[in-house]
């Protein structure tokens, strides 16, 4: 475990980015700091807040100019369970590092350093991808719109800032986003499938059923949709806001996952396609064959034991089934469903 910001950050602004001085393992850094996210009240525990930090000078200590510092109580072992499950499905996701920090001279406390999904994220993974993820609807993917013009206009503004991209590539990006969004608006699943990696998307789909994703992480304000500049295909990125819940009806899990919390138009469209569902079901079955309830229980218990022995661990988090319980319930349910087919 790394210790970050050993000495207090002098002053603290929860309203706007403000120049401050941070100390990381005896080294000084000029930073800008503000509260994290659109709902800071949801990222508060006692006197501690989640923060967005922007380093002013190179070299950046965490290989990125910007990092998110998320309070421990917001995540606890959820990130490790998410890491475990996404690794089993071989999905792209940002990493977390648990650190100790003293912010605003309020005493040491645990935070997670969250890797941001940005240019550095893709460079470190050697992926030829870009992403637009700033502000509400920042993914520039249509949800409840009947016209993609607004998204095209916003994309044009974002591309002007990307000075490293060639003119020809920008044209290709604009065409890809326009066609992708129009396929969603027109409910044209065959066109949509031309612009996605079927193997990867079916893996994501299988994951969200087993995991019990309630849709929050794929919603308009949280969606992280990457675009591959070589293949011209789109890739959803799994991240912290992908939450787990129990499937109430394994006889029809896709309907539940697409409609209970938030409606996700592209999942609704893909899950209406029998060929895509057949591939997804094969991926689910493959997962079930490789991961028994006993194996998953052992994996989750190992994580819980580690957190209990090393850090603060709150019963409330286990009580709210943020410890893998819902995943075990879903796996039991899906096993019964697949065994009866």
Element layout with pairings:
Elements: E1 2-3, E2 18-24, E3 27-35, E4 44-45, E5 48-49, E6 51-55, E7 66-71, H1 72-75, H2 78-89, E8 96-102, E9 108-114, H3 119-124, E10 129-131, H4 149-161, H5 167-185, H6 189-193, H7 198-211, E11 225-228, E12 234-236, H8 253-259, H9 265-270, H10 274-290, H11 293-310, H12 315-319, H13 325-339
Helix pairs in contact: 4-5, 7-10
Please outline what is shown here.
The protein is of the alpha+beta class and 341 residues long. It has helices spanning 72-75, 78-89, 119-124, 149-161, 167-185, 189-193, 198-211, 253-259, 265-270, 274-290, 293-310, 315-319, 325-339; strands spanning 2-3, 18-24, 27-35, 44-45, 48-49, 51-55, 66-71, 96-102, 108-114, 129-131, 225-228, 234-236.
Descriptive tags:
disordered N terminus, seven-stranded mixed β-sheet, alpha+beta, 341 residues, 2 domains, globular
């Amino acid at each position: 475990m790394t210790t970050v910001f050993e000495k207090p950050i002098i002053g603290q602004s929860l309203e706007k980015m403000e120049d401050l001085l941070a100390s990381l393992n005896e080294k000084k850094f000029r930073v800008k700091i503000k509260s994290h996210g659109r709902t800071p009240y949801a990222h508060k525990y006692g006197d501690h807040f989640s923060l967005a930090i922007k380093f002013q000078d190179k070299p950046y200590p965490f290989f990125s100019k910007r990092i998110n510092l998320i309070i421990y109580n917001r995540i606890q072992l959820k990130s490790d369970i998410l890491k475990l499950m996404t690794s089993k499905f071989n999905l792209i996701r940002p990493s977390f590092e648990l650190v100790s920090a003293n912010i605003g001279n309020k005493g040491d406390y645990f935070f997670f350093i969250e890797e941001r999904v940005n240019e550095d994220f893709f460079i470190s993974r050697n992926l030829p991808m870009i992403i637009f993820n700033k502000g509400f609807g920042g993914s520039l993917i249509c949800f409840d719109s009947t016209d993609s013009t607004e998204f095209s206009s916003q994309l044009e503004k974002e591309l002007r800032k990307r000075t490293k991209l060639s003119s020809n590539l920008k044209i290709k990006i604009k065409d890809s986003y326009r066609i992708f969004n129009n396929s969603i608006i027109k409910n044209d699943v065959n066109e949509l499938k031309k612009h996605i990696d079927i193997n990867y998307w079916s893996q994501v789909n299988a994951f969200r059923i087993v995991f019990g994703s309630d849709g929050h992480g794929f919603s308009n304000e949280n969606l992280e949709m990457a675009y591959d500049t070589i293949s011209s295909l789109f890739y959803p990125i799994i991240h912290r806001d992908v939450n787990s819940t129990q499937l109430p009806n394994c006889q029809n899990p896709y309907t539940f996952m697409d409609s209970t919390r938030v409606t996700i138009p592209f999942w609704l469209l893909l899950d209406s396609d029998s060929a895509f569902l057949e591939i997804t079901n094969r991926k689910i079955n493959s997962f079930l064959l490789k991961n028994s309830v006993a194996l998953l229980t052992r994996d989750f218990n190992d994580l819980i034991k580690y957190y209990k022995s090393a850090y603060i661990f709150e019963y409330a988090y286990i009580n709210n089934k943020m410890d893998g319980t819902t995943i075990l319930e879903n796996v039991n349910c899906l096993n019964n469903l697949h065994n009866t087919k």
